[in-house]
Write a structure and sequence with these properties.
29% of the residues lie in helices and 15% in strands. It has 19 helices and 22 strands. Helix 6 (196-211) runs parallel beside helix 8 (256-268) and helix 13 packs antiparallel against helix 14 (429-442). The radius of gyration is 24 Å and the shape is globular. The structure holds 1-O-alpha-D-glucopyranosyl-D-fructose. It comes from Parathielavia appendiculata.
Length: 603
């Protein structure tokens, strides 16, 4: 694709990306509640993470991103912070974080904390003061507005924005007779970034943790911090619904980039890095404005195209059929756009808000699960960008069993959206079953299930009663202990994959991306090309659960297979070219063919 001049420093020809440690890094995301419980209270904790740092080191990751561990009433599992400088007691203490930092640094790994500053908990002292009176000095730290009234004299919220978790984005506060804004739960009031004291307070929180040796932040919904002046009504997108998605007015608002540059100044004092979570952003230009190197804002962002691919227009639990063609278009768009414009991708298929990729993006069949998990790993980890592995993804952990009823789902988003949909579908059993199918496919609960360490009770996650039920239909067969022993396991494969990437950074990190066989409906095929011309990797991925007879592979694949060897694959022996030039690929087969020029040839 062409370059987008507004965001580059004027060069019209794509240059090889500048080298940086964070581009070469692989990041492992830890959801503390479900990772490892060291004291038997049923909830994971920081000492439990420290027990597993060698496991992470052996996997080959360089950075740990820790989801929020701050003091919090846990309405949204820590994304509702009530004190940014204390730790939620069941997770441990600030000293435990110090120990975690030391344990990681000793092993040459880094720690990235979650920075949740679009909103706080309603139990944060700032909000408690803010809501106490109209004249409180903290009143303006949050977004308060007077009600609207309809013709019949009914009180209405100040605008029609829907909360991401359902219902209005506004809650009425009886004490002061105004509404406050909360884009998520009512217990998560939005901070008012228009007030410079709020901005300063955020900078101070960052400084507090950076002084402790934290290496950077993952910034929660960071593109929501600047809202359109006047908070106008959202356009009607969902006919018949009282509240409408308001992202036009709260995502990427007018002062976003000014605020991001402010955050970056703090980070730069420590050579720390930042990855922003940016939902509701689709345009290249908007992403580049935040991540192009010369803009000095964020290093990279989580962009949502892939994880929205199967979300219908009615919201998370409405269905949409996705196609490989669509997936290719998304990947190709971001891979080329970032390369051409000096930006950088964050590569992810899973996190604590998404279900398990092997259940979501491949038909869930036990006999193909290992191959499918390895294929998805190859697909993801050898693209251009920084790789994010979510806990359990390295084992090919799957969604919760289909038979589990809604009572086993605990997430506030799942339960709110489920309740609202049930009201809508009252009496329509077919619609209810369809809804439940979507919950089984996409609920956040699937990724929050306890990490499967071994075949013992609760998968070895806890000796107590886990805060959510462990996947007891699965951990007997799929667990870290067993996979550490098995050289053909998904875990062993991830280790090989991350090593391969690291050993060939010029190809896999800094190389150009080129989509091959764009029109093929079953295969995802791409090349990574070292900018200096010394190496090329060719990837062939069968995205289907059927054998696939590839009659005429593209010339690039044929050449690669003729000239070089398959350095990684998920079948032994890997597929080869037949005498007639065709290839037969097994279900979910993945091949990585690497051609390296001998630099010293002829010397
Ligand atoms: O998520 C932001 C976000 O956009 C969510 O709506 C997410 O995409 C959705 O839940 C997927 O189903 C962040 C955090 O990652 C999430 O855990 C928090 O609940 C949310 O912000 C509020 O802090």
């Amino acid at each position: 694709m062409s370059t987008i001049p507004a965001t580059t420093s004027g060069s019209s020809r794509p240059q090889a990306p500048e080298k940086a440690w964070w581009k070469e890094a692989s990041v492992y995301q830890i959801y503390p509640a479900s990772f490892n419980d060291s004291d038997g209270d049923g909830l994971g904790d920081i000492p439990g993470i420290i027990q597993k740092v060698d496991y992470l080191g052996a996997l080959g990751v360089d950075v740990v991103w820790l989801c929020p561990v701050y003091e919090s009433p846990q309405i949204d599992m820590g994304y509702d912070v009530s004190d940014y400088r204390s730790i939620h007691a069941p997770y441990g203490t600030v000293e435990d974080v110090d120990r975690l930092i030391a344990a990681l640094h000793e092993r040459r790994m880094r720690l990235v904390m979650d920075l949740v500053v679009n909103h706080t908990s309603d139990q944060h002292v700032w909000f408690r003061e803010s809501r106490s009176s109209l004249s409180n000095p903290k009143r303006d730290w949050y977004i308060w507005k007077k009600p609207r009234w309809d013709a019949a004299g009914n009180r209405l919220p100040p605008n029609n924005w829907a909360s991401v978790f359902g219902g209005s984005a506004w809650s009425w506060d009886e004490t002061t007779g105004e509404y406050y804004l909360h884009l998520f739960c009512k217990e998560q009031p939005d901070l008012n970034w228009e007030n410079p004291d709020v901005v300063q307070a955020v900078h101070d929180i960052m400084t507090f943790w950076l002084d402790k040796g934290v290496d950077g932040f993952r910034m929660d919904v960071i593109n929501f911090i600047s809202k359109s002046p006047g908070l106008p009504d959202a356009p009607l997108k969902l006919p018949g619904q009282e509240f409408q998605p308001g992202d036009l007015h709260y995502a990427n608002g007018p002062r976003l980039h000014e605020f991001l540059r402010g955050l970056r100044e703090v980070l730069d004092r420590y050579d720390a890095f930042a990855i922003g979570e940016m939902p509701c952003v689709k345009e290249e230009q908007d992403v580049l404005m935040a991540v192009a190197a010369d803009r000095k804002e964020l290093n990279m962002i989580f962009q949502f195209d892939i994880v929205s691919i199967d979300i219908g227009s009615g919201g998370k639990f409405t269905s949409k059929t996705w196609s490989l063609a669509k997936m290719k278009a998304i990947v190709n768009k971001w891979q080329t756009c970032m390369y051409d414009n000096n930006g950088w991708n964050a590569l992810f298929l899973e996190n604590h808000d998404q279900s398990r990729s092997v259940s979501r993006f491949t038909p869930h069949r036990p006999e193909n699960r290992t191959a499918a998990a390895k294929m998805l790993a190859t697909f993801l980890a050898l693209q251009s960008g920084t790789v994010f592995v979510y806990q359990g993804q390295e084992l090919g952990m799957a969604n919760l069993p289909r038979e589990w009823p809604i009572d086993e789902y605990k997430d506030v988003e799942t339960l709110n959206l489920y309740r609202l949909a049930m009201q809508q579908h009252r009496g329509d059993s077919e619609a209810v079953e369809q809804l439940m199918d979507q919950v089984r496919l996409k609920a956040r609960d699937h990724s929050r299930s306890p990490m499967q360490w071994n075949a013992q009770q609760h998968g070895g996650f806890t000796t107590g009663t886990p805060w959510v039920r462990a996947n007891d239909a699965d951990y007997m067969h799929c667990n870290a202990e067993q996979q550490l022993r098995d050289p053909t396991s998904v875990l062993a494969y991830w280790r090989q994959l991350l090593r391969l990437r690291k050993q060939n950074v010029d190809v896999f990190v800094y190389g150009r991306f080129e989509l091959l066989a764009a029109a093929d409906p079953s295969l995802f095929c791409y090349r990574r090309i070292d900018p200096s011309g010394y190496g090329v990797a060719t990837l062939v991925l069968n995205f289907t659960d059927c054998e696939y007879e590839w009659q005429v592979p593209p010339a690039e694949v044929v050449e690669a297979l003729t000239a070089a060897r398959c350095v990684l694959g998920n079948y032994e022996p890997p597929a080869e070219l037949n005498g007639d030039g065709s290839m037969r690929l097994k279900p979910f087969e993945a091949l990585v063919i690497l051609e390296l020029e001998d630099l010293y040839e002829g010397a």
